[in-house]
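Deliverable D2.4 — example input (C-alpha cells):
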C-alpha cells in the first residue's frame, strides 16, 4: 500500500512538473487549485486591493480583467484565464506618483485641448473678418471710382463754361453749387469710409498678431507636454509571480490593455519588438479600443516552450 502511495505521488509530481513546463502559468495557481482541477490549464486570478483614488469599483475592475482575458482568448482560440475569488494570483490597483503624474497629464491635455479650441475659434474669427474686409475694400473702391467720375464730370462742366466764357444763369449756378456741395458731402463720406476701413485693417492686424502669439504659446505648450509626458516602458504595471500590480492608467481601455500585457508575462512571455503588439514594452502605437493580438504576440506565445 505504501509503495502504491509513493508511486502515485511520484506520478503526480512528474505530471504536475511536466504540466508546468508546458503551461508555465500554472506555477501561479495554488497547489489546491491544481489538485482540484488537474486538467484545467487556465491561470486563476482574483481582485485584490483597489486604492479608492482610482474611483474604480471591484465589479468594474473584474469586468475589465475579463475583457483583458478575452483578448487572449480571441487571439489564441483558447481560454487562458479564469476569475476565481479564491485564487492565489491577485490583481491590485496601487496609487503612487505614476498615477498622480498621469492625472496631471490628463489635466494638461484638457488645458491644451481648450487652448486649441479657443485658438481655432479666434483663427476663424480672423478669417471671417478678413473676408468681410475684402468685401468692404471692393465696395470702397467702387464708391471711390464713382466719386472720382463725378468730380471729373463736374470739373469738365466748369472747364467748358470757362472756355465759352458764357455768363451762368442763376439756375445753372445754383445747380452747380448744389452739385459741388453734394461732391463735398460725398468726399467727406468717402474719407469716413477710408478711415473706418483703415481702422478695421488695423484691428485685423492686431487680431492676427494675437492669434500668432496664441499659436506660438500653443506650440510651446505642446512641446513642453511632449517633453514631460512621453511614451515609456510598461512600468505602469508589474507581474511578480504573486500579484499583478497596476500603478497607472489613463482610461478603461488603457487599463484593459495593461492587464492583458501583464497576463502575457504570467503566461511566461517576455517583450517583443513589434510597436503595435501587446507585448511591446512601450504603450504607444497599440489600438487601445479595438486591440487584437498581433502575429508577433502569437509567435512569442508559441515559442515559449
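Example output (designed residues):
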Amino acid at each position: 500500500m505504501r509503495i502504491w502511495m509513493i508511486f502515485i505521488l511520484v506520478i503526480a509530481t512528474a505530471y504536475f512538473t511536466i504540466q508546468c513546463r508546458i503551461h508555465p502559468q500554472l506555477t501561479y495557481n495554488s497547489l489546491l487549485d491544481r489538485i482540484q482541477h488537474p486538467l484545467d490549464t487556465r491561470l486563476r486570478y482574483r481582485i485584490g486591493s483597489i486604492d479608492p483614488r482610482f474611483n474604480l469599483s471591484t465589479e468594474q475592475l473584474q469586468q475589465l480583467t475579463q475583457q483583458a482575458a478575452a483578448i487572449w482568448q480571441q487571439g489564441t482560440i483558447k481560454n487562458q484565464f479564469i476569475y476565481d475569488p479564491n485564487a492565489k494570483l491577485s490583481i491590485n490597483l496601487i496609487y503612487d506618483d505614476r498615477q498622480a503624474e498621469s492625472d496631471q497629464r490628463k489635466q494638461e491635455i484638457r488645458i491644451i485641448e481648450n487652448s486649441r479650441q479657443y485658438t481655432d475659434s479666434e483663427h476663424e474669427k480672423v478669417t471671417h473678418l478678413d473676408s468681410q474686409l475684402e468685401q468692404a475694400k471692393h465696395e470702397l473702391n467702387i464708391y471711390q471710382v464713382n466719386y472720382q467720375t463725378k468730380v471729373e464730370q463736374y470739373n469738365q462742366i466748369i472747364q467748358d463754361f470757362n472756355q465759352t466764357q458764357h455768363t451762368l444763369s442763376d439756375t445753372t449756378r445754383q445747380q452747380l453749387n448744389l452739385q459741388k456741395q453734394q461732391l463735398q458731402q460725398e468726399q467727406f463720406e468717402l474719407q469716413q469710409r477710408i478711415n473706418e476701413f483703415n481702422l478695421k485693417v488695423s484691428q485685423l492686424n492686431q487680431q492676427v498678431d494675437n492669434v500668432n502669439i496664441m499659436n506660438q504659446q500653443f506650440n510651446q505648450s505642446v512641446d513642453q507636454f511632449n517633453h514631460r509626458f512621453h511614451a515609456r516602458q510598461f512600468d505602469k504595471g508589474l507581474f511578480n509571480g504573486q500579484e499583478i500590480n497596476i500603478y497607472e492608467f489613463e482610461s478603461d481601455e488603457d487599463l484593459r490593455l495593461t492587464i492583458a500585457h501583464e497576463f502575457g508575462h504570467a503566461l511566461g512571455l517576455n517583450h517583443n519588438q513589434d510597436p503595435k503588439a501587446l507585448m511591446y514594452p512601450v504603450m504607444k502605437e497599440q489600438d487601445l479600443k479595438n486591440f487584437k493580438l498581433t502575429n508577433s504576440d502569437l509567435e512569442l506565445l508559441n515559442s515559449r516552450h
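Helices lie at 2-22, 31-36, 58-76, 97-164, 170-228, 252-266, 295-302.
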